[in-house]
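Researcher: I'd like a structural prediction for the single chain below. Treat it as a standalone chain; there are no partners to consider.
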Amino acid sequence: MQLKVNGENVDITLEGEKTVGEILKSFEAEASKNEATTTNIILNGKEVAADEFEKILGEPILDDTSIDLTVVSRTALVRNFKESGKKLEEIQAELGNVSTLLQSGKDAQVGKIITALADEISNFLHIARLSSLFPEFYNSLEAGGKDIGQFLEDFMPFLKDFEEALGSKDTVTVGDIAEYEISPRLQQMAEAVAGLKE
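Model: Treating it as a single chain, here is the predicted structure.
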């Protein structure tokens, strides 16, 4: 049997486990001691969808069985959050120039800033979603005086308005939303994760 975790081979000694379910249960018990959990399972080269999970548990472990697990830890999420927070602060510093750049016809430069903003917000949301696998940790996250889920939900309409203003080349609205709505929220997101303890 072959077990991989995050793409790395793991030496495993079976201690009476005879099914995929027993292996996964043993692994998850060990992972939880290290504040980690499994987010994806590939069994014999095929990704296991959520609705197929129950079916695979009884499959016997054979010599050629391969299990490839994607695992995320709370420590890794904290690191990812902190990196994302730093990037959001960098983007925030550039956001103040968007209106001036648009008026100067520097659309390509604006495009880079907007792409970086969209990518990093998407990354932050992805980390937040994974964090919900650790309810105690997730519930402790706050930004702008709100729990992180509510904060992000309230933030989304401003991003939509920003996108629409960009599409219609309304430089005044773009500048206002960037400066008064998006920029302070990026700062709050960065501050929310800066002090997280690994």
